[in-house]
Amino acid sequence: MSGGDRKKRACDRGQGWEEAGAEFYQESYPAAIEADLQQALQRDPSHIATLLPSKKSRVATAKRIRNDTKTTLRRRTSTRSRGTTTSRRMSTNIHDAAVSMLPDLSENLSNEERTWEEIMQIKAMPVCMAQKIQLKNQLQSATKLRLQGFEQLKWQRRKAWQQFRIRMKEAYSKMELWNDSLKTIGGNFGMGIVAYFLFIKWLLYLNVLLFAIIFLFIVLPATLLDMPEDETCVNSNNSHSISCCSELYWNMTQESGNIAGILEYTLLFYGAYSHMTYTSGIFFNLPLSYISATVGVFIFSLIVIVKSAAKSFKQRVVENEGQFYQYCNLVFGGWDYCIHNEKSAAIKHKALYNEVKAFLEAERLEEERQNRTREETTKLFLMRLFINLIVLAVLCGCGIFIYYIFEFSFNQISPQIDETNITDSHLSLNLSLNRIVHLFFEFLPYMCIVILNFAVPSLFRYLVSLENYSPSFVIRITLFRTVFLRLSSLIVVLTSFYRLIVTEVKDNECTNNTSKRPLCWETFVGQQFFKLYITDLFFQFFMTFFINFPRSLIAKHTENKVLRFFGEQEFDLPKHVLDVVYLQTICWLGLFYAPLLPLIAIFGTFVLFYIKKFACLVNSTPSSKIYRASKSNAFFMLILLISFILFTVPVGYSIAEIEPSKSCGPFRGFKSVWSLLIVVFAEFPDWLQSILYFLGTAGFGVPAFVILTLLLYYYYAVSIANKHMVTVLKNQLVLEGHDKQFLLNRLSAFIKQQQDQNKYHQEQANELGTFS
Fold first, then answer.
1. Residues 63, 23: Cα–Cα separation, whole Å
2. Considering only CA atoms, which of 764, 743, 768, 745 is closest in space to residue 50?
3. Across 628-654, average pLDDT
């Protein structure tokens, strides 16, 4: 019997056998040397899987499970194999001749559709362009099967549709707002800064949607529908009725000659909207539409913010999984490939260097913290306590200062208003001067707020340098204090409004003249938020073009170290984020009192983008700190979400508790805005009222609470199971990596052995040729 027949019969016998356990190969090849491996491959190449590291970890379990059935299966398989050997040997030559005439189907030829899908997937592969081109050429030149009939038509339609979508997407990206600007910023400052400008763009789109809701449900109906404003005061005995108070407010706004008086009774502010219901032809309840649109705007904002925040936090959590490999992540994944400027690349190198230094400094501080003596710990604690007391005193001082500035400015404005109402001196020169002074005192509190928001954070940055915190915690604590400063200033503003507004108004009065409460306090509040928004936006424009721009010119065109120190500016991302969030918070706060404030916010956000772009590209140098896009997005959304939640509360309180003005607005005559919803609820059908009443009873609330608790526990258990599965999959990935390395090593050894054999055979052939 020839060696070839023996090998073929052995191969045929091997094909009939079933797979044995891993312990069989461990017994047969205890040393796992190359000769044993080659012998195992000759018997059955698929059994190399039993030598993988990931399989060896399961040997003990597999041995216990398959120990009882292993012998029987082998015996049966051997019997079947011996019975079929003779018949296979007789038909071998016939099969060889037939197979040689057939095409080689071992290549697993793909069809046109599969090849095209693989070409489309090349774009997302993390390889260089040369390799992508090579892969595309290989796929295009490879042999492929053509589709026939309906399959061909369906694939052609799908291919044409996807190509159309790609072209439309490319065209949209070229026409997309600020696309070129974002590319320029990304090329010079990296994607972390681009994320900030994308955040401004996101807020612009959000304000557009908010304005669309308000325009469709409030402004457009009030403009198109002829609301019956029957506000003539015909009953002189009841001069403080709603109609008489409304007429008084109307006359006062018409007699006022300043710009604020002209704008006061426009659709920009709350007081211009009617409280009447349109019933001619169609039924439209403007007060109900007003409160519904306002609540809808806040709910929509919350949903959008939470959705974006969840997406950003998910990316942040994925990145934080590798925090234990921070040096590897920084070295191998820290570079921003969108940078195409040589100077920016050098600054990025420096930023990476500073980040490594920051990590080392954090580790040094942690080691120092663990090795501190009790005396050093006490001194540091007292120092931090003292600095925090200073910060608290500064915040309280700023709040008190803002409060008294409001008191002072309003006291200066009130006598001028009274004088304007009593005397008729519109043509005098003193009146023009009084208007300038009046305008100055109107904007004085907001100018003070903006100046404090600019100056106090510099003091915080100096104080935090004395507290010996880690670099990352320095950023967080400074940001927290700055956020608290800005939000507390708004809280003080709201407190000043509350003290002025929440006063008892008697039934025979239109307003409380003793406390100098405005006739239409909602419009007054809307005007204040409008002024605050405009003042802050103007101050940012002024600081960018008239203060920081000359500083940057001095830094670029001088060699003096002192002047360069005062002129150089880094793009401080946390500060600029707070500027944007602060303006958006003002928009939310004033939205109920000035319905068109989102329209002002659209123009403000649009202008703010170019202000910040100029500050970034012209005035500033790239920051020495590294800002990653995912971390930046999570940070933006967190600050925005906190601001939204905090300042939705005062708006909700004013809707639910504070009495509306008698002289203006859709809710005049009600004890509160919420009273309108109660009146509307009373007009619902009885069955709907019963359902809504039931939803507010304990019979519904207790089971709902129990069900929600069970669902919460269920999802908590699912999250625990998912975390465990993530750990298992991570371990499996590690084992797969070991398997890959094992196979590569074996393959390299096998290739080397084959090369040696080929070389030996070639030498033998050459020797035989020489002898012949």
1. 7
2. 743
3. 83
C-alpha closest to that of 224 among 147, 166, 278, 170: 278
The model carries a pTM of: 0.72
Tokens of 463: 């104080």
Write the pLDDT tens digit of every residue in 176-185.
888 888 878 8
CA-based nearest residue to 638, from 194, 198, 197, 199 = 199
| 3-state secondary structure at position 321 | coil
Tokens matching residue 2: 């020839």
- Report how far residue 658's alpha carbon sits from residue 665's, in angstroms, rounded to the nearest whole number: 14
Which string of DSSP letters, residue by residue, matches 664-722?
SSTTTTSSSHHHHHHHHHHTS-HHHHHHHHHHTSHHHHHHHHHHHHHHHHHHHHHHHHH
How many C-beta neighbours within 10 Å does residue 609 have? 19
| Structure confidence at residue 30 as a pLDDT band (50, 70, 90) | very low
Residues whose CB is less than 8 angstroms from the CB of residue 347 and which lie 6 or more positions away in sequence, other chains included: 621, 622
Quick count: other Cβ atoms within 10 Å of Cβ 445?
Answer: 27
Which range has the top average pLDDT, 219-223, 282-286, 605-609, 686-690?
Answer: 605-609
Strand partners, 277: 285
Q: Which residues, in sequence order, are bridge partners of residue 111?
A: 145
Q: Please, what is the end-to-end C-alpha distance for the chain in angstroms?
A: 30
Please provide the size of the chain in residues. Answer: 772
Contacts (Cβ under 8 Å, ≥6 apart) of 133: none
Q: Of 284, 285, 270, nearest to 661 (Cα)?
A: 270
Helix (H) or strand (E) holding 492: helix 471-501
Distance of CA 93 to the CA centre of its chain: 69
pLDDT of 322 above 60 = no
Determine the Cα–Cα distance for residues 555 and 567; give it in Å rounded to an integer: 5
| CA trace torsion 5, 6, 10, 16 (10° rounding) | 40
Measure Cα distances from 633 to 136, 458, 636, 641 in Å. Answer: 36, 25, 5, 12
- Torsion, CA 132, CA 134, CA 135, CA 138, rounded to 10: 160
